[in-house]
Structure prediction request, 866 residues.
Amino acid sequence: MNPSRPRIIIVGAGFGGLVTARALAGCAVEVWLLDRNNYHVFSPLVYQVAAAELEPEEIAYPVRSTLRRQRNARFVLAEVRHVDLATRLIETDAQSFSYDFLVLATGSVTHFFSVPGAAEFAFGLKSLNDAIALRNQILCCFERAAGALDAEARHRLLSFAIVGGGPTGVEFAGALAELVCGPLDGDFPEVDRNEVRITVLEAQNSLLPGWPARLSDYARLRLGRMGVDVRINTAVGAVTGDALRLHDGISIASETVVWTAGVRGDPSARAWGLPVKRNGRVEVLPTLQLPAHPETYVIGDLAEVALAGRTLPMLAPVALQQGRAVARNLARQIAGKSPLLFQFRDRGTMVTIGRNAAVAHVGRRAVTGLPAWLLWLGVHLINLIGFRNRLFVLINWAWDYLFFERAVRLILPVGRGSTVGTRQRKAGVCVSG
Amino acid sequence: MNPSRPRIIIVGAGFGGLVTARALAGCAVEVWLLDRNNYHVFSPLVYQVAAAELEPEEIAYPVRSTLRRQRNARFVLAEVRHVDLATRLIETDAQSFSYDFLVLATGSVTHFFSVPGAAEFAFGLKSLNDAIALRNQILCCFERAAGALDAEARHRLLSFAIVGGGPTGVEFAGALAELVCGPLDGDFPEVDRNEVRITVLEAQNSLLPGWPARLSDYARLRLGRMGVDVRINTAVGAVTGDALRLHDGISIASETVVWTAGVRGDPSARAWGLPVKRNGRVEVLPTLQLPAHPETYVIGDLAEVALAGRTLPMLAPVALQQGRAVARNLARQIAGKSPLLFQFRDRGTMVTIGRNAAVAHVGRRAVTGLPAWLLWLGVHLINLIGFRNRLFVLINWAWDYLFFERAVRLILPVGRGSTVGTRQRKAGVCVSG
Prediction:
């Protein structure tokens, strides 16, 4: 580290922040990467942790290890308290930093759309802590149902409602259905698998809104075959501790409501005085700079960039490409050149539903079934960080595929430091019904 | 499950309880296995989780999966509230049970010997939660030291004191020294490995008290070479949040005091009115029955059995053999025969210190170095439950051996349901110094 060089602070070690730091490896700068966790999470597989398919460690990687051979970069485990754009100062719970350039990549949080009770009672599916809390809840519900004689209590415990039929909702519904029919069916002789109800509720008129109709229909058909009750045009009115009320007044008894209906930009951005839109995202220039602060970049889920009239989605590939673009623009700025406009290369999106079943949307081609599933497996394995993580995930997937068996299903307590709500914190301990 | 058959309740799914349940597979009985966790822990490797060598899941196994093919057994996730030996009733936080036969196998807890501050501030190393909390603490101390300019704070954060030079203390000290010199040295360029102090404090006049002198000396020599400061004849007077005070008044600054100085029988036994000795263990007949209750067996760490004048140690092999013996005795009792006396076959004990270094005490032979280490590896791998656990542990060990690299070092929050004290609960979140 050379303090005479320009100092770049990167906040957030998700896809965007981590790639920016790595892409600055050869530059004559001093890079500080800040995150509140000491690990980077491969977020596209968080739902598999919740479904007890993968262990938390298999989709996480210590940030420090990724920066080991990079002499110009340091990691700081810290929670940012305040960013002062005017004086270029950052306050954290650990140290304060001044900077020459700033990259904000703090991502997004679950958006509950002010639905009453949702923030309090529904389970999110964004962070690793969310996933562990949800896994605990699912396993605890089965444990409690195993001892429950009361039919109504059993019904409530074995009913799982997933709000949102987008990619996360579809993937989690499929993974949960396979968990219930395979490992949990073997583990719980007290529970008949036909007692279990998995419901997906989507407010719009199809699953995977915005995807080609052929793929939406395929997803709905496959989930239906797996026993998942898919309800479209169904909006949620309220969530309570033991039920979910729909807009039309119908109630679905369930102790486990999973909220995948939306995300919004990290709320800290507003607190720090950044120009924030209604969806919580920060509008940036096509160079990814803040309009009034050319030394400040915002990338990933937090940034809203309009390219050719459409705003880019909140997806990992966008963040990864933006991270590389920002590193390039920082180098240009330091060299006295002007930053380039960001260009996104859309390589397609994919959603897996279950065994041999996935949908992929690559360019104008819509692929379903086994080819899409193999593509999904390959892309996710290749993009995981760390050879050991890839090996362990591959072994777990192969195990699941061959033996219909899942990873160790531990109920481990989740506690302080978790970003989940009051109800989720309870999930570490089974509360007897 | 056939309710007309004799009902056997087993409390605790550790080595003793789990083996008892499995050994009753062929019997015409109804077996209920109760535990507060849904997993069995391979406790001899708990210290490796604390040293970030193995992941929690790799040494744990879901109890329900072990009983899958056993038609006469059921698992109940429950915390026992009360045992009434006279009316043969068990109350739990889930259900109540009457029984014909009872097997108590609730194990042991850390014994702090009333040392002031120990229960509050020292870290235990008994349960999986203990191990996760201690791992978090170690990683947080390094993170905080990385940002600390104050020499005194750095010293306190990088000083690790292990109270107790028995097998657990020796094994953990070695594993911690290897963690510090390998992975953490690479991860923390801000910390010089020579700043780290690991101290083992043993009140008696040698490490591994009761072992042959040759093995104690070897352990002390090897730990010394790894940079561990071993102090014998050193008793601890008090533990505070940032130091440990010795009996002679000397103070050792440390934010991380690990307590491996002793264990005692599960304190619930006293609350349930069982005849408990000063060490918390329940004295049983040589048949493993309670003197006044022939239908009640006590096994494992909780039971104190005197054979040929010496009491059996609190070790996994004793619990395993007692589990099998109790299953046999139960079958005999039900068949109207009298229970047999328990006989312990001592196959030896082993302690690993580090890479290629271990001590083994088999019969009258004392083995050190590489042969003892290979023996230790083999015995522990074979005894792990579950092929996948064995495979993952083997991969992790091989990785560590070949690349001096450890498992993912995540700081995950530990919370409610953990048996650790107030200080440990903090360990999920790094508190800035």
About this structure: The domain at 7-36+78-110+264-334 of chain A is CATH 3.50.50.60 (FAD/NAD(P)-binding domain).
